[in-house]
Amino acid sequence: MDSRMNAWTWGLLVLLGLIWGGSFFFARIAVQHVPPLTLVFFRLLLAALALHVYIAGRFDFYAILKARWREFLILGFINNALPHALIFFGQTRIGAGLAAILNATTPIWTVLIANYFTSDEKLSPAKIAGCLVGLVGTIVLIGPGLSAGGEAPLWAMLLPVLAAISYGFAATYGKRFKNVPAPVTAAGQLTASSLIALPLSLLADRPWTLAAPLDAFLAILALALLSTAFGYILYFRIMASAGATNASLVTLLVPPSAILLGVLFLGERLALGEFAGMALIGFGLVILDGRAYRMLARAA
User: Fold this and answer.
1) A Gene Ontology CC term for this entry (predicted)?
2) Four-residue CA torsion sign, 261, 265, 268, 269
3) Nearest to residue 106, comparing CAs of 153, 172, 25?
4) Does 144 score more than 80 pLDDT?
5) Confidence of residue 10 (pLDDT cuts 50, 70, 90)
6) pLDDT score recorded for residue 148
7) Does the pLDDT value for residue 102 go beyond 70?
8) How far is Cα of residue 251 from the mean position of the Cα atoms in its chain?
């Protein structure tokens, strides 16, 4: 294991997994009372405002935002507005744990997309194996939805997968921001995506007519400020101290966190097949990561 992953960094990684797992939990609460597109807008707007305060004019933020606003619009659409909307629509019918598991396929789609659109991230035998195992896990999860006897409708389970594919495109497109300070990229995409979500919310939901209860309001605040704004800051802190590869391990921690919160507070339960699908996706991600194999090879 990378020596930079000390006890403090592991603690931050576990905390981030809990926070990002909590995003599915908070969304499941809020989406019962707030339409998905309006929930997307409030999440993005509040998170963007929080990051504007955090940056406080540093990093030449507004100059970069002005110069690259078109790129921020594209990134904000495929990394925030579109996938958040897909997940929230799906969560009107499926629980937090299942949505988190399906969305955990993001690294698999990222590898496949990067192989096609980049010249330096081609598929290797290990990547192919990891993708195949993860895709089998996804099929195990959505398979019951193909029959009328499935508890969750197929369309609701497919939406988090489509969101994961959108995140995969965003990861590839986001490479053009590698020389931009990470907080600026986060604040820029959230600012742009909140502007995208605003007219959609106004046209589709008429949000001024909504009357959400207190628990939905608190869930929106937690979703925006804790799971989005603070989550980004924490993620960048981990990347700075332990590298992007180690930070990507959070993908394995998000579904268990969402499942635990759903079981404890929402009364959700996963079927045996859903646990099997989660295990296969997790195993596929471990293969993609490659470090377990390298550790075994060094031990041998």
Assistant:
1) membrane
2) positive
3) 172
4) no
5) confident
6) 53
7) yes
8) 9
Mean pLDDT on 120-140: 89
Q: According to the 3-state scheme, what is the secondary structure of the chain? A: CCCCCCHHHHHHHHHHHHHHHHHHHHHHHHCCCCCHHHHHHHHHHHHHHHHHHHHCCHHHHHHHHHHCHHHHHHHHHHHHHHHHHHHHHHCCCCCHHHHHHHHCCHHHHHHHHHHHHCCCCCCCHHHHHHHHHHHHHHHHHHHHHHCCCCCCCHHHHHHHHHHHHHHHHHHHHHHHHCCCCHHHHHHHHHHHHHHHHHHHHHHHHCHHHCCCCHHHHHHHHHHHHHHHHHHHHHHHHHHHHHHHHHHCCHHHHHHHHHHHHHHHHCCCCCCHHHHHHHHHHHHHHHHHHCHHHHHHHHHC
| Single-letter residue type at 94 | I
Write out pLDDT tens, residues 27-66: 999 999 999 999 999 999 999 999 999 999 899 999 999 9
What pTM does this model have? 0.91
Residues belonging to the chain: 300
To which residue do tokens 């939990």 refer?
A: 25
pLDDT, greater one: 149 or 78:
78
Residue 45 and residue 194 in contact, taking contact as beta carbons nearer than 8 Å: yes
Q: What is the pLDDT of residues 232-248, one digit of tens each?
A: 899 888 887 777 667 77
Distance CA 67, CA 179 (A): 14
Short-list 90, 12, 25, CA closest to 222: 25
Number of alpha carbons in the 13 Å side-chain half-sphere of residue 33: 14
Segment 106-134 mean pLDDT: 89
